[in-house]
Structure formats: C-alpha cells, structure tokens
Amino acid sequence: MFKGNNTIKLIAVLGILVGAYAVVKLTSDGGRSKSYREVLVEVDTAKVTRVEISGADNNTILEKGENGWIVNQDKKAVAATVKTMLSSLNGIKPSRLASRSEESWKDLQVESAGTRVQVYEGSDEALDLIIGRFGVEGQRSYYTYVRLEDEADTYVANNFMGMSVGKTGADYRNNVIMRLKKDSISSVDFIYSEGTYNLSKDGDSWAMAGVAADSAAIADFLSALNFVSSKNFEDGTIGESDKEVVIHLNGSDDITVKSFGEGILNSSYNESEYFNDQTAYDKVFKSPEYFTSGE
User: Fold this and answer.
1) Can you point out the beta strands (E) in 6-89?
2) Which of 61, 67, 251, 287 yields a CA-CA distance of 20 to 30 A from 143?
3) Angle at 211 between CA 209 and CA 215, to 5 degrees
C-alpha cells in the first residue's frame, strides 16, 4: 500500500518538473516561444509591384511599370539591381531574438534611425521591415538587427548585410558610363573646339600626331577606361555638347563620350543618363600635352 503511494508521489513530482521545464523553455529568450518567428520575410519577387525605402534622410520609391522598373517616378531603374535587392530581403533568416522590448529599439537602430522597407504585391503590403544596426563577429561572421514594423520583437539576422539594400534612388539607376577591354582600343579621337587630336596605336606603342606618346600616361589612360562609373547623376537642364571623345574599338561599336560643361558628361554606352562627376570626367577628357609630356 505504501509502495503504491510512493509511486504516485514520484509521478506527480515528475509531472511538476516536466511542466516547469516546458514553461521555462517557452518563455525564455534562448528558446523558441510561441511568438518567435522562424520566418520574417516571404516575398514572391515575381509579384512585387512597388517598394518603398525610407530612412532618416532618404525616401526612395521603386515601381514596376509596363516597360520595367522606375525609381522615384521618372528615372529608369536597373531590373537586375531591383531583383538582387529583393533576393537579399528574402535571404533574411531570424537567427535569434535580440530583444522583446521597445526600450532597445534605439540602441539596435530599429526605429527612426533604421531603414524601413515596405514591399507591395499590387495593393497588398507583403512586407514592412526595419533594417537596423550592422555588426561583425570574428573575422568572417556578420549580422544585422531587423524588426517587423508592427511588432516589438527585434531579431538578429546572421549573414545578412543591411547595406545590401540600397537606400537612395541612385543605387538603382544605371551608373555605368562605360565598360570595355582596354586591349580592344585601336584609337581615340579628341574633338575639342581648339582642334581634333588623334591617339593611335602603332604596333605595341601609341602616338599622337606622329609624336610618340608617354608610355606611363597611355597605361594610366587605357586602364582608367576599362570601367568608368558614377552615382553623381545630373538631372538638371543639359545644354549643348562642347567636346567629344570617340573611342574606336576592334570588333565592337565605338563609344562616344560627350562633355556638357566642366564635369558633366554622357556616353553612348549609357545614353539615357547624364553625370556630374569631375573624377570620371578627367579620366576621359585629356589634353594632348597629357600624352606627350606625361603630365
């Protein structure tokens, strides 16, 4: 009789311990509570029609139209860049809870200091996420704090880099002025108001108006033309072109770069965009003395 009572007591105590353990696991930040989200982002990229990205000093709107993506209502966006950004969002996986308190938002930058991303599929909002502070652990591990806008919980998203989501309209426009292989350049015409100059290749060397060009200057010039880009878009009124540089290529169409005043340029490689970038400008527009004196 006593043996049976002891067994019942042991079972009762075991039940209490199991129950207590379950409560601890379900309410602890280190466990998986009922409200812990294992999926934060689940966007069908093919259905996305609009993305709004806002922060402390920026407001960018991407809209999908009949002819592709438009940024901030009237500028053409690069579809591949938008797709990469959406894929980056879909790659956000909550690794653990960082906090369940609103008091931590400021420190983790998941409030006004963060970047808010709203994604729409037609009229339906598919995502409203705030991307917060970025951090690094060790030499190879990184993470970003994220929070759904209408929830208090902040999560750590391992292997997600917040800066992979461009914040400004310039991040989504075609910023390539030219891209080429320097070995394909056969000659370059500089068409300026004071005259036209030709830089041509003769075997392994280059010359301008029959004068041998400085080899170091040539090497720097050709290497700089391999890839020229800028995010300094010029959206103001554009006047008449005042000079041109025509780059003749073997096996490919010529690339013509036009100047519209000091620092302002446009290229036939990317005809729809104008740039106001002195550094990019100086890579293309050279005086004849640059090649003959090495200055």
Assistant:
1) 50-54, 59-65, 68-71, 75-76
2) 61
3) 120
Report whether 78 contacts 173 (CB < 8 A). Answer: yes
**How many residues are given for the chain?**
295
Buried b (16+ CB within 10 A) or exposed e, 53-90: bbbeeeebebebeeeebbbbeebbbbeebbeebbebbb
pLDDT tens digits for range 197-221: 999 998 889 999 888 999 999 999 9
> Rounded distance, CA 76 to CA 82, Å?
11
Q: According to the model, what pLDDT value does residue 24 have?
A: 39
Residue 32 pLDDT more than 80?
no
Tokens of 37: 């989200």
pTM of the full predicted structure?
Answer: 0.81
Per DSSP (E only), the strands in the chain are: 50-54, 59-65, 68-71, 75-76, 94-99, 115-121, 124-137, 141-148, 154-158, 176-179, 185-192, 195-202, 205-208, 211-212, 227-229, 243-249, 255-259, 264-267, 270-276
Question: Which residues have a Cβ under 8 Å from the Cβ of 245 and sit 6 or more positions away?
Answer: 188, 189, 190, 191, 256, 257, 284, 285
Cβ(128)–Cβ(118) under 8 Å? yes
Sequence-distant (6+) residues with CB within 8 A of 29 are: 96, 97, 100
Maximum Cα–Cα distance across the chain? 118
